[in-house]
Amino acid sequence: MIIAAACLPAVQAKPLLRRQGISFDYNYDKVRGVNLGGWFVLEPWITPSLFAPWANGGGVVDEYTFTQALGPTAAQNQLEAHWNNWITQDDFNEIASMGLNHVRIPIGYWAINPLPGDPYVQGQLPILDNAIGWARSAGLKVMIDLHGAPGSQNGFDNSGRYGPIDWQQGDTTSETLTAIQNLAYRYAGDTDVVTAIELLNEPANWAIDMAALKQFYYDGWGNVRNANAYTAVTIHDAFEDVVSYWNGFMNTQAGVNDVILDTHIYQIFTDDDVAMKPCDHVQAACSQASNLASTDKWTIVGEWTGAQTDCAKWLNGLGKGARYDGTLSGSTGYYGDCQTKYEGTVDGLLDVDKTNLEYFVEAQMDAYEAHSGWIFWAWKTESAPEWHFQNLTRAGLIPQPLTSRKHPGQCQTSSCMIPGN
Ligand SMILES: *[C@@H]1O[C@H](CO)[C@@H](O)[C@H](O)[C@H]1NC(C)=O
Fold this sequence. Notes:
Elements: E1 31-35, H1 63-86, H2 89-97, E2 102-108, H3 109-112, H4 124-138, E3 141-148, H5 172-186, E4 194-198, H6 210-227, E5 232-236, E6 259-264, H7 271-275, H8 278-286, H9 289-293, E7 298-303, H10 351-368, E8 373-376, H11 389-394
Parallel strand pairs: 1-2, 1-8, 2-3, 3-4, 4-5, 5-6, 6-7, 7-8
This protein binds 2-acetamido-2-deoxy-beta-D-glucopyranose.
2-acetamido-2-deoxy-beta-D-glucopyranose binds near residues 345, 346, 383, 388 and 391.
């Protein structure tokens, strides 16, 4: 991670044309949201209790192997219970009460366009329908996010299937487009709430054909536009630079409207990242602002976190350790003890970790509002405290109102404001 010598002054992106019918003003209002992670797409580290029977082996590491191991009846029962309990109308009301205006809801293709031979079970869509009603009554906007594509677009457990990256093989691209089309038509009458559909989460630039991904983005945009004129279409940056790679693509000059570019900013998934000190993390966040403001499309940081380490149990995959304390196989360094960051509660975090997190979160909000705004990952987790927006906010570690700052101006100075650093 290269740290800018000095943080850049606050920068604001230029407004873009938008259709009158879209019900959130992505030019002038900031997206402030949370991801409802671990709800319709299981992630072992978000809900380790569901995966407890395989904690010491057995090959169940994702939703695919979970449903395969349980079989259709047991999988259906367990998942129905989870879907009905993990997030409820109360969550939507509390999200709105904290001043947030968006939820991003990950969902897998298997909920929308199940394929023969898959072990996955269905029943997510009627609950998503309810969620859109809860969002409406709470005054929240929804970005529906296709988080898993057939074959897996990134091989991460959060795509539904850990392992090989086979998206784009066979008919998987057209099957994904069908899922998008079905979603767009299903919610075409709900544009007062469903302001955006994300075509695909985190396609892996290291394993896929990027020219074919770009064509998929155009085709997916067309599928959404066939259903209605007003839903914004979110495209993920595929881990390419939002300016140098994506400027010029699908902007208004290219004849498309209402496109949101989504970038995810984590500072924890390499040894260099976890080696950074709290002040380095703040500066790295601040250094993103000018790039975000220089994009030629609406741009959100659609995932980010309070975590400065990869300590959370199973974050790197079920049964895997962390780079931070050297327990991940292949990692070489030791940067600190994971302690209470491995598993526990927000209240149980060490004071030093609470302080560092508070500064880091505020700096990220400052920087990520340089363009269209941000969506935190995640609203809640079972036991990963640094990722739990609800409890972090209840504990006073995330500002209320969201625009207030205990530590203002972190991105206006190159000096470190964190005590003891
Ligand atoms: C979040 O808060 C709830 C309610 O106090 C508590 O039961 C839960 O353990 C907390 N989880 C975390 C990760 O802080």
